[in-house]
TrEMBL record:
Protein name: Alkyl hydroperoxide reductase C
Location of the Thioredoxin domain: 2-157
Class in the EC hierarchy, top level: oxidoreductase
Binding partners and assembly: Homodimer; disulfide-linked, upon oxidation. 5 homodimers assemble to form a ring-like decamer.
Reaction equation(s) it catalyzes: a hydroperoxide + NADH + H(+) = an alcohol + NAD(+) + H2O
UniProt keyword annotations, A-Z: Antioxidant, Cytoplasm, Disulfide bond, Oxidoreductase, Peroxidase, Redox-active center
EC number(s) per entry: 1.11.1.26
Function: Thiol-specific peroxidase that catalyzes the reduction of hydrogen peroxide and organic hydroperoxides to water and alcohols, respectively. Plays a role in cell protection against oxidative stress by detoxifying peroxides.
Organism from which the protein derives: Raoultibacter timonensis
UniProt main location, coarse: cytoplasm
Highest rank taxon of the organism: Bacteria
């Protein structure tokens, strides 16, 4: 079953952000664009490369009015320990959400019960709290932050211009398609 346009359920989780423990709730994400970036676990191999890739262009997500929430089933204490021992993780500017009870994993349907970790899933959530774009990868396949940013920008453009659609490899400023109009004259 598709999760497109599914509203995320209420949640309240602990997080590690800017050298502090904070609480993040659904109310915190409403009113702005968000990416929930699930990864299997702290202190692993592929995960830090993805998080570092996101951190490298975090300012571009912020310019687009989008917050990044990285999520694993580790506790906020483990996130802090990873932050304190890893140079790349110490640079993360976005909140690291802790999901040891699997609440968020269940909401986004990425929990691997037999392993106790999350799938590698990326979810774009609009200001109304609805999932508008997502992908879930096998645990051994890393993601590309630049492509995720492009999909955020395309999701925002389509939300603002309901009569337009973004073709493959669309980038901000590129031409879009207007299905009702573009088909006229081609029939």
């Amino acid at each position: 079953m598709s999760m497109i346009n599914q509203e995320i359920d209420d949640f309240s989780v602990q997080a590690f952000h800017k050298d502090d423990f904070v609480t993040v709730t659904k109310d915190d994400v409403l009113g702005g664009w968000s990416v929930f970036f699930f990864y299997p676990a702290d202190f692993t191999f592929v995960c830090p490369t993805e998080l570092e890739d996101l951190a490298a262009i975090y300012d571009k997500f912020q310019e687009a009015g989008c917050e990044i929430y990285s999520v694993s089933t580790d506790t906020h204490f483990v996130h802090k320990a990873w932050h304190d021992t890893s140079e790349s993780i110490a640079k993360l500017p976005f909140p690291m959400l802790a999901d040891p009870t699997h609440r968020l994993c269940d909401i986004f349907d990425v929990y691997i019960e037999g392993e106790g970790v999350a799938e590698r899933g990326s979810f774009i959530v609009n200001p109304e709290g609805k999932i508008v774009c997502y992908e879930v990868n096998a645990g051994n396949i890393g993601r590309n932050a630049a492509e995720l940013l492009r999909r955020v920008q395309a999701s925002q453009f389509v939300a603002e211009h309901g009569d337009a659609v973004c073709p493959a490899r669309w980038m901000p400023g590129a031409e879009v398609l207007h299905p009702g109009i573009d088909l006229v004259g081609k029939l």
